[in-house]
Structures are given as C-alpha cells and as structure tokens.
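Hi L., both proteins are below.
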Amino acid sequence: MVVKAVIEGYARGGGRQYPNKVILRVLDYNGDVSALTGKRVIYRDAKGNVYKGRVIRRHGRRNPLVIAVFDRNLPGQAIGQIALIES
C-alpha cells in the first residue's frame, strides 16, 4: 500500500534548519501515523532524480504529520510537492 504525503518543510530548531529532515503531512490515511515509523519514503523531482528516505517519528499529537530523514538533502523546490510512503 502506498500513502501520499505533502512535503511541508524542513525540520527546524535551535536557530537552524536541517535540510535532510523533512516534515510530511500524510494524506488519506485512516490509521495512527505512528504506525508509519520505519517505512520508506520516495520523492521524485521533475528531472527524474529520486530521493529516498525513511520515516523516523510522528510530529505533534493529533496532527497527521511525520518526520522523515533522507539520504541526500532535498532541494527547496520539493516543498509543497508529493512524496510517497511505502507502507
């Protein structure tokens, strides 16, 4: 099963941002988003480059947000685009 997610932005804190950690808003998922921990995330840009990562934890209490870590830093153009979570 593949779940769609929107890339909301980079994880930030302590006066800096972490371009390899991304906050994802999970779309159309009826379960608890903490069940997605450890699942693979794939983002493909317009040029065909593939960025692979994994979900490390949920973000917030009741929000459908998760934090994913990518092997390569995501470009700024990825914010607002769709990523796929393989569950």
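That was the first. Here is the second:
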Amino acid sequence: MHKERVAIFIDGSNFYYSTAKKGKKVKFNKLANELVGDRELVNVYYYGAPLDIKTDAKKYWAHHRFLNMLKEIPKFKVILCNLKKIKSGGDFVYIVKGDDVKLSNNLLMGAVDDLYDTAIVVSGDEDFVDSIKIVRERYKKKVENAYFSRSSSSNLRKACDSTINLNKILKRFVDEE
C-alpha cells in the first residue's frame, strides 16, 4: 500500500497578511512538514506576484529574494501572478490578480491527473469552494483547509474534509523576531 500523497496550495497574499505583515518569519519547509506529517509530500505551490520595482526598489528586491528562497526548497513551485495597480482616492493600491484562478486550476488538474490523494489549501478565501467541491465529489480526493482564524471563511472550512487552525501550530513553523 502506498503512502498518502499530499499537495499543498498556498494563497500567498492571504498567507502574507496573516504572517509576514505581522512580523512573523515563516520557515516554509517546516510548515510543509507540519502539514504533511507522515504522509508523502508531492509538491507545494505558492501563488504570488512580483512587487512593483518603481514603487519601492528595496521591497521589490527583498520580495525577489524571498521568492528565490522558496524556489530553492525541494518540491516548492512558485506560481507568479499579476500585480495590478489601482487608483483608490488619492493613493494607489496593488491587487494580486489571477492567483485564485491559477490555484483552482492546479487543484482541479492535479485531481484530474491523479497527482495527489489529499490537497491542503492554505487560505481563508471562499473563492475556492466550488473547485474543492468538484475535487471531492467527482475525483474523490480529500481536501484539508489550513487557515488563520482572522482571515478564514467558514464556507471554505465547511467545504473541506478537515481543517487545520494555523494559529494553534504557529510556533512550530515561525521564528518569532
């Protein structure tokens, strides 16, 4: 009998606002090991967008180094999306575009191609509910939701087979600085 194969799908911007923006430094290899446990890790997909170098070159290069560090971790795949600049009042805000669609597509195609037995969606965004239902019902895959309490949709948690509250295990994969 083979080990249960697990793929992890990380919604980068959702994750960032729950960790890095609050000064927490995540050890992504430890996070993956914590989520997978004694099962077999197939891949970790991290969805994000490169920052705008014209807005803040220092932040751009720091983020660039971060993405390159992720790419160096075995079985990690960084999926780049677009960063859209939108005028809001007198300021500009940046929104990551395409990340939800790419995550959903990889989740669905991974099920279609039988690349995993269990998917772990690391997000609080309920936009993934329909894709999760298809993966569970049509392809008989298990889906777990790893989430942070403050950024989590109850609809997303309910759509999954099980949930992991990351706030409860944060110390196991974060360096408090």
